[in-house]
Amino acid sequence: MNFAPIVATLCLIAFIKTNVNFPDNINRVFLAVCISSILLIISDNARFVTARMDHPTALRYISTATGYALRATFLYHMTIIASRYKSKINLLTSIPLILCILLSFISIFPFSHGIVFTFSPDNKYIRGPLGYLSHIVCFFYAVMIIIYSAKNYNHNKFEPIVLIIIEIAGIAATIMELKFKYDFILSQVLSSSIIFYYFFLATITYKRDPLTHFLNRQCFYLELNHNTKNKIVLLSMDLNNLKIYNDTMGHLAGDKALITTAEHMTNVFERYAKLYRIGGDEFMAVFPKTDISTVEALVKQFQEELSKTEYRVACGYAEYSPEKDNIEKVITQCDEKMYADKARLKSL
User: Fold this and answer.
1) What pTM value is reported for the model?
2) Domain-by-domain residue ranges, the chain?
3) 68-77, 214-223, 225-234, 281-290: lowest mean pLDDT where?
4) How far is it, in rounded angstroms, from Cα 142 to Cα 126?
């Protein structure tokens, strides 16, 4: 029995139950993935033991069917996690999993004629006409995971890379199991992957504002510390009248104002800068390789686009040069220009 991955996964379950890092539905999916991982390890161990007997047993059939089903189940749940920013996942997406589970367990019975797998009287594995069904279904979900994670690019640029690495490791483990007859490789890779993926997303969650998905105040000051030796342009932004929206129309209206302005900031600035929400209605952008004239043009474009909505954002920007400037003074300059712009917008 491979106790190490089971113990590690049980520790992750305990962490999920005692720490609220994600919405309840995503936490439940992570728990389902962990349970699938543990059951897969147990079924692989049962398959390993029964494969060395001189005749096929019921446990041999059940553990093999369970292994086929759980591999697809694991990736199905990973697809749900990767699609977490969608309102709900399409029910059609679950059809390949249902077929895989049904056909895998039907293969246990003689009437199936080994449609997915069977065993000879001397306990040799025989792959059926649909013997690669589990692999095909897993490939389908692997593609879906990459598609959904790519759609999350605006929220998290590194998630697609992490998932591609996980999938490459899974493919390599599958090849080693199929071609070189190594046991337990894939189940251990999947167990390690879900632990890494959970803590990767948890780390990203702590770094980002949950409403706008911009980096938070702490990340902003860490970024400044890293850039004190480089020339950068800072842009300070403040959403006008957020308190009025909250007080007169409710916090949902205030949230809508923040989300709308954040989307416009993303559309205009994200190609050039990192975006931060550093307070209730306060935002900062750090432009590492952009001259101030370009920032000036982008700010003008941003305010023109935002003028098509009911919202207004005051902006102030300044350039930081490590040879002659103090970063705190540059931030103060940005804020002073932003407040001047705020007064201008209110006078219109």
Assistant:
1) 0.80
2) 3-207, 217-347
3) 225-234
4) 26
